[in-house]
Every structure is written in structure tokens, then in C-alpha cells.
Write a structure and sequence with these properties.
The complex is a heterodimer of chains A (148) and B (130). Chain A has 3 helices and 4 strands. Chain A has 148 residues and is of the alpha+beta class. In chain A, the strands form 2 sheets. Chain A has a two-stranded antiparallel sheet with strand order 1-2. Chain B is mainly alpha-helical and 130 residues long. Chain B is flat and about 65 Å long. The chains are: A alpha+beta (148), B mainly alpha (130).
Chain lengths: 148, 130
Amino acid sequence: MSLTNVFNIAGTGMNAQSVRLNTTASNLANAETVSSSIDQTYKARKPWFSVLEKQWDQVDGLNRKLDIRSQVGDGVQVRGIIESDAPLQKRFEPTHPMADEEGYVLYPNVNVVEEMTDMMSSSRSYQMNVEMMKTAKQMLQRTLTLGQ
Amino acid sequence: MSALGFANSLGIHPQTLQLRASRAEVLANNLANSDTPNFKARDFDFNKVLEGESHRSLGMNITNKDHLAGKIQTDENLMFRNPYQPSIDGNTVDSQMEQTFYTDNALRYNSSFQFLNGKFTGLKGAIKGQ
């Protein structure tokens, strides 16, 4: 039934957006985490979204071809978390306890403004998925009253 | 044509309801992927597909139990949407538009449901002889 699938799709959307919000939180919390070596410095993390393709294990080839929804995915999936390769910020702070021999400390490549807009965007998308689920729920509940 | 029997008395409404539910899924997928890079929003021409549904009797003859039933509804009906505002990551989902379509679709689902429910109420009345 298609309408119950809307629940799954909205669920994947909410999951993806919460992962995105989590990375944003992690990035913002670590925006000022300094280090003296490139390897140890925190790098901005971003989720990698892609379409969740339909699972066709139970459906035979013919029905697959005839079904209008066969090309449509089953929502969104988080393929992984990617660390940003943007250059780290090197600041000259000789008095800093983490400074290297030349007096530099490395700050993460987190763009705070970008993270804030990302946060707003993911929060909006999350809300949108919730609304979508709400509408599907109303439609299903309505269907249950058929013939009453 | 007699109004007796489900196929005749319910009219087009069961198919409409089913197709509305299918479209809800397609649109839900668009909305869920509003932040997926390179995702292309899709939709189908509702009237065209419904036309295919209602003329299902034009399908193939079945003279043997192994024959396959013809069905006009196919993949080709699923089309890509033309974006109003192209985005830099290749995503063509316009959240506002998709949300409008989704709500509109839900509303039309409810109206189709209302018609179908009316048909059932009528049938029930006929059964009870009221």
C-alpha cells in the first residue's frame, strides 16, 4: 500500500535531517577546538545524502516494469559522513599552550555562518517531513472509516 | 448498464483513490530528497494515467491461464519536473511547489474518498431496502 510507504519515506527523511543536525551540532561545538598538528585538528563533517533505491526482492520483473512507482526511490539515505577538505585555519598565537615550535595553532575548517544556515535548513526540512507524515496519517485514518 | 455489482456501482473512484495514494508516494519521495544532491524531482500526469486505468478493458485477451493480463499503466508516465529555480547542487526539488502538490493531492484523495463512501452508503441503503 502506497500510503504506508509515505510513512517510511518521511521516516528516512527525518532520520537524514537529524543526522545532518547532529553533524552541525558537532561542528559548532568543535569550531574552536585547536590543535598543533593537521592530523589531530577537527575537520568539519558533512552527511552524504543519496536516494534510497527501492528494494525489489519480493517483486517479480514484470510487475516491476508495470508499476508506476518502480523508478521512484524509497526516500533518502545517509551514505556516510564526509570530512571537509577545506584548508584549516593557521593562526599565529605563540602564547597558546597548543602552539607548535613556530608559534602557530591550527583551528578547524568550520564555517560558523554556513553551519547556522545548515541548521535552519535541516530544521525546516525535518518539519516538512513531519507535516508530510501527518497528512498521510490523516489520509489513512480517513480510509479506515470507509463504509461506516 | 446495471448499477449492481461493485465494478459498475463504484465507478472510477477506487482507481482514483489508489492512484492518488501512488502519487502521494512519488511526491513524498521528492520532499524527502529535497536536500539530496543531483536528485531530480518526478511526477506523473494524473489524468493521463487515470485514463489508462479506466480503459484497462482494452488490454490483452487472456485465453490461457499462463497469459499475462495487459495493463496500460507504465513507467513512461513518470516524468521529470522542470525546476523553477535551478540549484547549484543539481537538485530540482522545489520544496514549496512539492508541498503544494502534496497537499492538493491529499485534498483530492479525501474528496475521492467522500465519493466512494457515498457509493457504499448508497449500496448499504439498497441492501437494507431503505
